[in-house]
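Dear colleague,

Thank you for sharing your sequence with our group. We've completed the structure prediction you requested, and as agreed, I am returning the results in plain text so they can be pasted directly into your records. Please verify that the sequence below matches your submission; if there's any discrepancy, let me know and we will rerun it promptly.
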Amino acid sequence: MEWTEDLATGIQAVDEQHRELFRRINALVAAIKQARCKDEIDATIRFLDEYSRTHFADEERAMKESSYGGLAEHQKQHAAYLANLAELQQEAAAPRIKGVSYDLSVTTNQIVVDWIVDHIMQVDRKFGAFLSNRLS
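Please find the predicted structure tokens below.
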């Protein structure tokens, strides 16, 4: 998964946080594919959970401060992502043969990779456009 400029929201702080999420998600995917230590996988998932909560709080605060009409829907999407991440944590914590399962890899791609790209492209960029129009 690679960060590209078409994922930019135009909000510097948000884009920087998104880039960091991409770096960490890539580290998680690599750890799973390379069947690296369960502790490394679990630690990366915990980091993603904590970082996502901070990132989402920052986004939601900016939306509230700017009276963004899409805040409630955005909050629902964030809550759904965190619930899916909790599901991923449970799956990763389950005993695995040889440390990694194909299912964990597929679930990670569906829950983390696909969601974040879609969310940025479909939802976060709308907020960036909203802020840009307000400042124009």
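Summary note from our side: The chain has a mean pLDDT of 84.

Kind regards,
the structure core
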